[in-house]
Amino acid sequence: MAFEVSSELEKKIDEVITHYPVSKRSAVLPLLHLIQHEFRYIQDEAVNWVAAKLGLEPIQVLEVVTFYPGFRQNAPGKYHIRVCRTLSCAMAGSYELMDALCAATKIDRSHADHHHPISVSADGKYSIEFAECLASCGFGPVCMVEDDFHEKVDVSKVGELLAKYPV
Amino acid sequence: MMASAITYLPGKEPHVREHRLIFKNIDRVGYDPSIECYEQNGGYVQLKKAFTMARADITNEVKKSGLRGRGGAGFPTGVKWGFIPPTNTKPVYIICNADESEPGTFKDRYILHQDPHQLLEGMIIACFAVGAKLGYIYIREEFPMAAIIVEKAIAEAHAKGYLGKNIQGSGFDCELYVHRGAGAYICGEETGLIESLEGKRPYPRIKPPYFPAALGLYMCPTIVNNVESLCHVKHILEMGGETYAKLGTPNNTGTRILCVSGDVVNPGYFEVEVGKVTMGEVIDVLCGGLKPGRKLKAIIPGGSSAKVLRADEVFKLKDGRELTIMDIPMDFDTMAACGSMAGSGGVIIMDDSRSMSWVINNLNNFYAHESCGQCTPCREGSLWMKKISDRIVAGTASPDDVDTLESVANQIEGKTICAFGEACSWPTQSFIKKFGDELKGDCKPELAGKVVAEEGAIAAAGLVAV
Description:
heterodimer, A: alpha+beta, Arc Repressor Mutant, subunit A, Glutaredoxin, 7 helices, 5 strands, B: alpha/beta, Ubiquitin-like (UB roll), 3 domains, 4-stranded parallel sheet, 13 strands
């Protein structure tokens, strides 16, 4: 996807920068969020654009992008799924949920590792990754599809869940 | 005031043993996050009252209340506020830590989603008390709806004159903004959070000299408080510090929200007076007991970083008390005396169906993922702990590996800039201390004394090649 910031997006960006009257550098994370929301991931051009916008060196933006698990450097699927991996959800069956979601979306996670946590289906419709504790430990297993939060997602409900996200 | 009785959604009614202050409006029928609803229920009255008080008196009320931080460390909130140097001439900032990410903890999300103005009122009172004209609510990235709801609440508070210039004619100006994290647990550490808010990698700062109350955001005095702690401020003003301190037990005052997960019939959140319920009551009364036919095996009592307790332990305390695990009152001091911590209030219950090797491995994977990498003992050690416990679970570990695992943990604790070092080593140390035999039992005795690790062999080969 070509990286072109619309005037509408730039207006939002300029407004967010005013939240940080002491240091524009503080706006790095919010700007990256706005850009990732629009473009689905952070391209190299976006890193340079944010740096120029805030008067920073590109490395000062890139080091942020590469550190935080919430920022992606590759395109996810149309619907990105995050399954909670941590203890309480794992006890409630989140590994089984991950397997069921991968089977239903035909995603191969065998190449996922720390540096490439996201796996995308061949048709690009879904992507999935494990996330660490999503903070709903009493109602696991939990997952997020895009910004939607789902609790007590039993493996038997996977079809029902995915039906909410038509591709 | 509304005369009608408060009712809750079916199945979400508070337990009779609960004492709800902070969660009074959570799951309430007809309650919504709007400012109108909040005002109809007595909202922002305490803020108006705060403006009639001397600033130091507000901090004194919080000190008198005995409120201890609800984020994990349990440090007295009023004392923290008092750490701002009296000679300070720099701007002061307040940050609300809404990065809720300690495994086992799920309380702040309900406040942010369902009762955001309660947080704002507490936070604006805190801003006035310490003289902060600018504050940020650092919300974890995985709460996208919460960020939208709180931003809307801030806009509503602005429109009604509870934020902005000359709030309620007091002459006090204050602006609050939402700042979203990006999925890193270390941002819950207050100096890491501050670095993140400055637009950097969240590498924690070394203390001293970087105590936030002296050198925090932009090197100015900064108060970082948890969501629940800031909500309590409103209730302390309403009740008065001394009356508030009558809730709970001495030195463990007020209410707190326990988050229970794992192997109980009814897991969930329960706001109780601190120390007024025991662990046994949490399991059997609040949560409906263990699952049928199961026996208790282990409990992590205060978020995943808290040391694990074994079901058959008897705790002999310095004051002469002897407690079983079920007798432990849910407070800060007794839990510490039993060798663990009340931490963030996240209680994870494990029954006899659980493999302790599998449990500690799950946590080691978490800490290896979340170490920020700044300090060598933690960056390297957390990864080695994960690799070794991976082997134990896979059945490819030597019994010596358990000793190595313990040795790695011991070399992290106390040797890092921030408390993540303790957070990641305490689980391993305590699981080995309490369940070492089970961990060794999952290893292969025939592998004793052999180099079994693939990565160990690679490292050895590398040495030879050099």
